[in-house]
Specification:
The structure holds two protein chains of two kinds. Chain A is α+β, with helices and mostly antiparallel strands. Chain A contains nine helices and 13 strands. Helix content of chain A is 36%, strand content 23%. Chain B is α/β, with parallel strands linked by helices. Helix content of chain B is 48%, strand content 16%. Chain B has an eight-stranded mixed β-sheet. In chain B, helix 5 crosses helix 7 and helix 5 packs across helix 9. Classes of the chains: A alpha+beta, B alpha/beta. Chain A: It comes from Myripristis murdjan (pinecone soldierfish).
Chain lengths: 382, 418
Amino acid sequence: MNNMSPEVALHRISPELRPLLCSVVRNGRVGLDSTNCLRVTDLKTGCTSLTPGPCCDRFKLHIPYAGETLKWDIIFNARYPELPPDFIFGEDAEFLPEPSELPHLVQWDAGDPECLLQLVKELIQQYHQYQCQRLRESSRLLFEYDSLLEDPNYGRNMEIYAGRKNSWVGDRIVLVCPSFISIMSSLSQDTALDPGEDVALLSVSFEDAEATQVFPKLYLSPSIEHALGGSSALHIPAFPSGGCLIDYVPQVCQLLTNKVQYVIQGYHKRREYIAAFLSHFGMGVVEYDAEGFTKLTLLLMWKDFCFLVHVDLPLYFPRDQPTLTFQSVYHFTNSGQLYSQVQKSYPYSPRWDGNEMAKRAKAYFKSFIPQFQEGAFANGKL
Amino acid sequence: MAASISGYTFSSVCFHSANSNSDHEGFLLGEVRQEETVSISDTQISTAELLQVVEIHNHDPCAQLFSFYDYAGKVNEDNLNRILKDRRKSVIGWYRFRRNTQQQMSFREQIIHKQLTQLLGVPDLVFLLFSFISTANSSTHALEYVLFRPNRRYNQRITLTIPNLGNTSQQEYKVSSVPNTSLNYAKVIKEHGAEFFDKDGVMKDIRTIFQVYSALQDKVQAVCGEVEQSERVKEKIQEDVNKLKQQIALRKRKTAEEERRLREAQNAESHPTSEENSEPSETSLLSRVAFHAPSAPERPGTSPNPPSYSDLLSQEDSLLSSSSSPTSAALLPRPQAVGSPGHPTPGPLGMGLDRQAAGQEDDDDDDDDDDDDDEDSSEYENLVSEAAHLPMVSASVLAQGRPAALSPDGDARGSQTS
């Protein structure tokens, strides 16, 4: 029942309701976290058990919101598919939206496949307002929220979750780092990253009303995380005690921006590097990474001795030195691999431009190759 | 708050629900009443408990969904009236049936409930939720029902009892107060009711039984009166008997004394013995005789004073001569209560003797024999058994004594001491 793939759910649901569920399951993105789709579980039927399937007309919808997952029951009637659904809001028993605020409910159109999705979006909006209402009880978070609301950068894109008194879940604000997104879009022009799927969310949890226990967390979509060098590379500063979000959030955003800038710079630098090598070594280039510009392989000859040079550009190039791996085309090691030597330290400076690096690399090859050749003949076998 | 639903209503709702191929809803008709229970116990002052009881008598299923509300959940009052018609005032709640869902009020249900509460004017409108859960392979189906009263903040769920559904061997069969609204039933009862009910609506049998009861009560009352009278007569007679007994005893004593005197006189002539052989009773008898001496000069009839002792003695003699063996026993002195002076006053005896002189002695004696109660019979037995020990008897009999209060003339004897 759980972790049902969307296709299975679509297969089991009553045919008249299928289009509605289709748009929810396939295209459903509500809220800030657009990487997490809406999930459907617990498909059940409201018809008698003798009714031949597929006739499921009620299910549980999992909606990510503010770091939590809302589990709402949606109840249709398969025998009357033109009727609008009913909802049970799970643990939020006190959430009762005003029907007049739900235009897609009042003018329910079963023929419109997007109707259910739109209705869910409207409900989420109402839920957001409901959570803001609940925040009234905690003045600290309310202050934070109001101050952020006024800032046009963040105001539109926040999700609030006012925690429950009896559970360990504290209050939480999740917001999008907007400047980050703009940077990402510029990155996407150079890379194949699709900005629509990437998201950077800052989630700040307040465990108590005095804001002495504040836990900020940064959620990045996987591609961004990878592009930035993994989760270990990205550390956000701790929330200063006594500080406010209105100060903290720009701080985090700035940090991210810097990081991204750096990455972008690195990207450009790498591209420059590769381009320079291409122009210097021309026909000697076997292959190179044309997307991320992280690798380059050269086939060079020196005094009738052919060898390969693999260049690996690290993430933080040019700060970090590229790794050169020399490989003999004739000799094998005992394990059957081509004999190779790795060179990590060679004359290098991050301040050189690509051209300079290529020239220097060439010079280095010339100086190193006799050594390598000897080594290959000595240790490798043909 | 307690709630109950009659078994047939419940099964009817289930039938309608289970046969519908979608969700189903309807209205619950019944009544709400307040029950006050006052409990009194020895340890505490009485406490009164107020319980609100909701009784569901009937239900009114809706033919289709959204029949009285629109997509936004707004209740249309006209449609509502059309569905309920004149049953509107007996609506106490509504119900909904949905399969395979949680036991929680849904969004639309809550909205509708609020509006219904206002429109119908029932502040504690209840909501009965039926949920039909089936297992995946349809092997087990469970019908769950929960009664909510959503207008309260706390304790929203009420237990719904179905009377007579359960182990009836251990419980009494409960009769519910559901009024019978069937027209056919009313017609039949009206037709044939005259045979069983009188004009006031009370069953005829009850009246007849009550009449029998009243007659029995009257009879019992009459018998009570008779018993009372006979008891009084018996009392009187008992008094007389006691008096007679006293007289007899007195006379016996006198004769005994006479004989002793004679004997003594004879002995004194023949044997000048000491007075060691004289019985202590003789001295007591003598003392008794001496006690009576002051009243001796009085004569009966001439004054209201009791008759003289000599007269009493003479009368006793006459009595003694006429009586047979029982009176020989009656010669023995009568046992007296412990502490009493041990002799009857001449007054009551005199009165009694006067009556006896009328010639009813024998009857009285016979009556005495018959009417003796236990105490008297025991006394009589004592007298009979000790007939042989004539001289000694007075002391031993005296020693036994009798409680003064128990006999009819106890008071009289009690007053002898004063």
